[in-house]
Amino acid sequence: MAVLLQMMYASLFLLASVALASHDPEGSWAHPGATLEGCPTSCGNLSVDYPFGIGSRCSRGPDFNLTCDDTTKPPTLFLSDGISEVLDDLAVSYQDDGNLDKIFSTSFRHTILMKPGVHVYDWSFKPPGRSFEYIGQTALNITGCDLDVYWVSDNAGTTTRACRTVCPDQASTEMVARHRCNGTGCCSFNVGGLDNGAFHLKFVQGHTKINNGAGSKSNRTAPLWDRISITDDGGVMISWSIVDQPNCVAAMRDRTAYACVSKNSDCYDTGEGYACICNDGYAGNPFIPDGCSNDKGYSPIPSRADCTRRCGNITVEFPLGIEEGCFAREEFHLNCTNTTSSAVLLLEDFEVTGMNIEKGTFEYNGHTRGQVEQISGGPILFVGYELFSSLQWVAANLSCLEAQLNISGYACVSINSRCVGVNATTDYSFFEAPKEDTYVGYRCKCTDGFKGNPYIQNGCRDINECLQPNICKGNCHNIEGSFYCTECPRNTEYDLDKMQCTTTKQHILLSGIIIGLCAGFGILALSFSATFLIRRWNTNVQRQLRKNYFQRNHGLLLESLISSDESANDKAKIFSLQELEKATDNFDRARIIGSGGHGTVYKGILSDQRVVAIKRPKVIEQAEITQFINEVAILSQINHRNIVKLFGCCLETEVPLLVYEYISCGSLSQVLYADSSNGFSLSWDGYLRIAMETAGALSYLHSAASVSIFHRDVKSSNILIDEDYTAKVLDFGASRLVPIDQTHIVTNVQGTFGYLDPEYFHTRQFNGKSDVYSFGVVLVELLLRMKPIFTSESGTIQNLSSYFLKEFSEGGITGIVNSQVLEEASEEEINNVASLAVACLRLRGEERPTMKQVEVKLQILRSKRVKLCQVDARNGEQTQSMLLTRRARVARRSSTMPLGDRDNVASTDNQ
């Protein structure tokens, strides 16, 4: 009874706190820009960031006002409703660019005290405020005796029994019943796909007949008889948004209440409101002034000279340190238990067993899963890998160019050192997607011919290569950063054992015999060689021609670029012409799988059995060869699941050949305009996912790759579909790399009519917004199933984008949308996609959204549709219907030939 009273007092305390907070005057809430000094930033082991706050003046509004219950151990954190306990940190710092919604998990428990003579009880649960929405699903445990639990659908007006509890013959405790929860005193059922995030339950008591003493009055005094307890099993996921305005456009009209107050922050719509995010290259909290910043925490000069650099048998070199003033930044502060031989060196909870300063790695005991995201609450500087006891670190979350602009904070201070960018493989195992490379930051390395510590003055020292065994077949001479060899003097030879030149012994007789035999074999070989001379002459001419082409196409430059990029995980390969001729049966015409404006594509099988697409471009101007080589080196490093992989090239022909990943199922254009009799088509959900994946690939090229890349020829025929119906963007024949300090490039007009940006056509200045315009045309194709240039019923040739914009402005969009889209998509989805296409097709590039914003919008539309399909799947529908239409599924089951063999199309320009 004492425990029960304590629980009731705690609940009353929480509810009273919430009630007081909800009646605070409007002026007591902390609006953007208001000071948060003195506000608690944690509750127990959970951290809290604005717009959340503990206390009304510390949060943005009533929904974000939290309560910390210090009477529990550890203290517990509750949302504004007083019953939803927060289980995760409410921190918005260092968020990923792809984060659509802020999501955290909660747990709740509610008790209904039963009254004599009352047998029916109702209970409704709603999100703790307009700013929140329940997502996913959870399991509810209902504890009580002799109950029928019903799920009440307020929208449909139906009641469905969810579960039932029965009473045991003997009294049972609530803890035992909840632990088993098998219908005896406790029952459980799943809750998911909630309407507006709320649900309504009805409890009816009295279905069990009383006999043999079951349910007797003595038993009915137990807690199982006098109350109904409702708890979740495993937590409930909640997403949050700023909902004081419906979208970003409306929010930015009132700057006094606009949430995205930090410089270098941006706003994106969430569907129910809006949220804020730091721009690319910045991290932090976008909801507070100056919350988004780039990494400036590195100090290249230690403040102390008498630093202890040993911990047991491990040497701790700068920029790391174990004493104050001896490390370059707080995240590099290590803890040494003592300085004896049995000392333990710690980095947070990692026991360091070794380190390599030049490689930027730690060895440690134990292992971590995926990326070690934050240490000491700072930026992401440490990266670990599953199954490997190794951590890689970077000096700062900056590119080399950004780091070198701030010379006072630049880490590579040693002469003969250089900056190296570090990529890490991020594990998206939660989504079961392939791993992708992401840029982490930079580290320093001694240049070739030097070794040591590049982070201190004169730390890189010359390597004496002459100490390496058998590096020269003669005398070795070391010079700074390199070495050179000279031949042994006359009458001496190089001794492999002694590694020096020694005097040669004279064997006259043996030498005479050898000379005689060599002369005889020489004459014999000369007679045979005359027979093959003419035949070999032709071969040598071809070999020399290939060599000349290789030099003219700057093959040495590409080899240098490939060998110098040590950060690349999968380097480009320079293929020989002989290897590609063998792969394509000497470029047999039967191997042609496509041709278009930029060249011809052949299907080939390499010696390692990889199936590839080999592209023979049209003539490239000699002045553009150097730019072409640099683009091959960069594009071959792109590793994105929605971009066709460039394996390498061949430079032994007049026009270089490109070797791509082979995609078997043709292009989006072929699927859109295929004859309906072939039985293959995609559903609206499939097209929407392909559009989202394509936008993600273009956004990656624009902003997430190490060098910004403009595609310059986005069209439906350049979006391939693989055997898993995943989008693959290809054809970089017109692409251009963009330096980090430029926003556009001036070129001759290139592209495909119907997709060409009008602003680019007039100004000849191409930027990322030109790719956005072309993508907008692709969205219109998905809605209307019409080609970019088409002939109207009157016989006139029309531009699809102009036709679409005219119909949209007149409110007639549903009259021109394809019938399949009208059948499978809701009117809201059609209007949202049409509005996004209109935004992409604006004449002024500065008024168009970025590809990142387009991707986020499509992800929101896609996530809403997935939620709806999950509800349908629970009612018995197959999840495969999200991808293929019924006609396509029947065709795939009945066909004996794969789609890739029927279309025989891969990695091509198509039309």
Automatic annotation (TrEMBL):
Topology with respect to the bilayer: Single-pass type I membrane protein
Lineage of producing organism: Eukaryota, Viridiplantae, Streptophyta, Embryophyta, Tracheophyta
One GO cellular component term noted in the UniProt record for this chain: plasma membrane
One BP term from GO: cell surface receptor signaling pathway
Chain intervals for the UniProt region annotation (Disordered): 890-911
PANTHER family to which the protein is assigned, alphabetical: PROTEIN KINASE DOMAIN-CONTAINING PROTEIN, WALL-ASSOCIATED RECEPTOR KINASE-LIKE 21
Every Protein kinase domain range: 587-861
Pfam families per record: GUB_WAK_bind, Pkinase
Signal peptide: 1-21
Name this protein carries in UniProt: Protein kinase domain-containing protein
Residue spans crossing the bilayer: 508-534
Keyword Chaperone in record: no
Localization per record: Membrane
Gene3D superfamilies membership: Laminin, Phosphorylase Kinase, domain 1, Transferase(Phosphotransferase) domain 1
GO-annotated molecular function: ATP binding; calcium ion binding; polysaccharide binding; protein serine/threonine kinase activity
